[in-house]
Amino acid sequence: MNNLAQRTEPLQPELEYGRVMAGEKGVFIVRGGLGLVRAEVAASCLVQPAAGDRVLLVSGPGRQAYILSVLKRNPEGASPTRLVFDGQVDLEVNGGGLNLAAEKDLRLASGAGMDLAADKLAVHAGKAEAVIQRINLVAGVFKGQVKRIRTVAGSVENVFRRLTQRLKDSFRFVEDQEEVQAGSARYLVEDTLTMNCGNAVHMAEEMVTINAEQINLG
Question: Is 60 within a domain?
Fold first, then answer.
């Protein structure tokens, strides 16, 4: 009976402080009260340990040890604080919002895709830069208010069912050739229509009509 009681007695883990000496990829060498031990990072320890950090260490039978938490970072170390997860990670907030704030830079990076889904999206920035190889935009209504636009492109192709432009002044500079193909064209000018060219050719299959109070040719 005494032997049976000894076998069924629960084994108590031991907690101690330690200092990380070296290691990477979830396995570290930690100096504790019993010397150097090989310890894995527990799943609850989100901060990735680094050399010189003071940690809380738990050890069990067979010298199996885990780093439960990082208590104090190495004051002489220059490595940033890293939160490391293995596998798929889902962050869920119930009954509230989620705010991410940084005093300096905030970066989001993904090796594959990145999706943003929201009922409303607002972006406020003093300066923005975007480098995109290809972009597709599908919108029900697009409205933009821009003080100045400068666009440089190799070629531009626009397909519209209807295009309406209201301009105060319009200037077009075409170096080679400008061609307009239309079923019909109409120009309404309130004051004066002036056309200057080296040569002018007007061709009509049926009729040409010029109607004015006074016509000067010369």
Answer: yes
Nearest to 21 by CA among 67, 81, 63: 67
Domain-located, residue 166: no
First to last CA, the chain: 131
CATH classification of the domain holding 23: 2.40.50.140
pTM over 0.85? The answer is: no
Question: Which structural domain, as residue segments, surrounds residue 29?
Answer: 12-72
For residue 108, CA distances in Å to 75, 79, 82, 102 come to 27, 19, 14, 12
Tens digit of each residue's pLDDT, the chain (218 residues): 555 555 555 567 889 999 999 987 778 999 988 789 999 999 889 899 999 999 999 988 777 899 999 999 988 877 788 888 888 999 999 999 999 999 999 999 998 989 999 999 999 999 999 999 999 989 999 898 999 999 999 999 999 999 999 999 999 999 999 999 999 999 899 999 898 888 989 888 889 898 888 888 87
Number of structural domains, the chain? 1
Buried/exposed code over 196-212 (b: 16+ C-beta within 10 A; e: otherwise): eeeeeeeeeeeeeeeee
Residue 59, classified by CB atoms within 10 Å of its CB into exposed (0-12), middle (13-18) or buried (19+), is buried
Residue 56: strand, helix, or coil: strand
Whose tokens are 């309404």? That residue is: 188
Spacing of C-alpha 77 from chain mean position:
30
